[in-house]
Write a structure and sequence with these properties.
Elements: E1 3-7, E2 10-13, E3 18-25, E4 33-39, E5 46-51, E6 58-60, E7 68-73, E8 78-83, E9 92-99, H1 102-111, E10 121-126
Parallel strand pairs: 2-10
Antiparallel strand pairs: 1-3, 3-8, 4-5, 4-9, 5-6, 7-8, 9-10
């Protein structure tokens, strides 16, 4: 059974930092592209940061470049998102997911058509 469990969210003042974690199980984590998505109330789900199975290549949406860093620990089946210099517009529920490659992860994750989603973790940034 595939499981994705996100954690690390919270409420933080603008300019602060948070570190999100995602534990994956029930699939071959080390051979899967992984990524973070977010959805704010009334807005479409967007891809925030993606990483290849090896960790060598990454993708960031423009608005988080230079502030967020995605990383993975394949030995622990864990994905992380270090978020620095947070802004109120980063407020959303953050989800992790996976796919065979980064291209399909971006397309299917943004469309919401991936089969399994975790419960997400709420990030609230106040000014």
């Amino acid at each position: 059974q595939v499981r994705l469990v996100e954690s690390g969210g919270g409420s933080v003042q603008a300019g602060g930092s948070l570190r999100l974690s995602c534990e994956g199980s029930g699939f071959t984590f080390s051979r899967s592209a992984m990524g973070w998505f977010r959805q704010a109330p009334g807005k479409k789900r967007e891809a925030v940061a993606l990483i290849t199975y090896s960790g060598y290549d990454t993708f960031y949406t423009e608005s988080v470049k230079g502030r967020f860093t995605v990383s993975r620990d394949n030995a622990k089946n864990t994905l992380h998102l270090q978020m620095n210099t947070l802004k109120p517009e980063d407020t959303a529920v953050y989800y992790c997911n996976f796919a065979p490659d980064m291209g399909s992860l971006l397309v299917d994750g943004t469309a919401g058509t991936l089969e399994v989603w975790g419960q997400g973790t709420q990030v609230t940034v106040f000014s």
